[in-house]
Amino acid sequence: MRQRTFFLTLLLFLLTVHGCIIAIAVHTYSSTVEQAQERAASEHYYIASGLLKDIIALDGRGVDYRQGIVSLAEPYGYIARNQNAGIALYDDETLAYSNIGGKASAAPFALSQNGERQIRLEEHAAGASVVVAGKLSEDYGGYTLLYSYDVSDILNEWRQMRNAMFLAGLIFSGIMAVGLLVVLGMLFRPLRDISKISRRIAGGEYAMRLSVKGKDELAEMATSFNNMA
Predict the structure, then answer these.
(1) Helix, strand, or coil here: 207?
(2) Residues 129, 104: contact at Cβ < 8 Å?
(3) How much is the pLDDT for 15?
(4) Average model confidence (pLDDT) across the chain
């Protein structure tokens, strides 16, 4: 009975603790990714707006902006690089400029029919990136800007926090198991004494009695047993 009580109590405790840890880890992961997506979306909007203004300015002066699109995109590539990110500019499905390298997919996944901006978390060999892509405008719909924000370090920090929480949970569970063994030992000792004395009385040792210590329920039970004996 003692072992069954121990294992059931410990199992309930482990399920509760690790369930809470999993819930916290999932919540912090979702929050971390959401914040990264919001930041990437904001940076994408900033760069797309600036690049579009530059294109409109050249177009207004009668300059063929398509010939100088790389020169227009490069400063924004430097800005993105300072934000631990990169950009890629597509003219329809042709890559016009990119400083992303191998950190994200080169495919312009957001070349959707409705032209709406799309955001996704993309896993790759070097880690993970939040990728945002969307067209510059209806008038310049052939251009699609892809912004790739490297979140590998951010997710690594989250994994370290998650592992630390699970490690702390395991250590706390070990302490709980030892404490539970001690408590159950104290609780079940009087029951073992009663069982032992009962067998000795049944064997003819009628003078055997339980020792009474304290004034709690266990002491009252021991007194009642002695009176019956």
Answers:
(1) coil
(2) yes
(3) 85
(4) 79
CATH number of 2-159: 3.30.450.20
Element housing 149 (H / E): strand 143-150
126 and 153 Cβ atoms separated by less than 8 Å: no
What amino acid occupies position 121?
Answer: L
Of residues 161, 160, 130, the one with CA closest to residue 148: 130
- 118's enclosing H/E stretch is strand 118-124
Q: Give the phi and the psi of residue 131 in degrees, each rounded to 5.
A: -110, 130
Among 145, 146, 144, residue whose Cα is nearest residue 131: 146
Model pLDDT, residue 113:
47
Listed residue (118, 114, 155) closest to 133, CA to CA:
118
Per DSSP, the three-state class of 194 is helix
Tens digits of residue pLDDT in 152-165:
999 999 999 999 99
Q: Which amino acid is at 100?
A: I
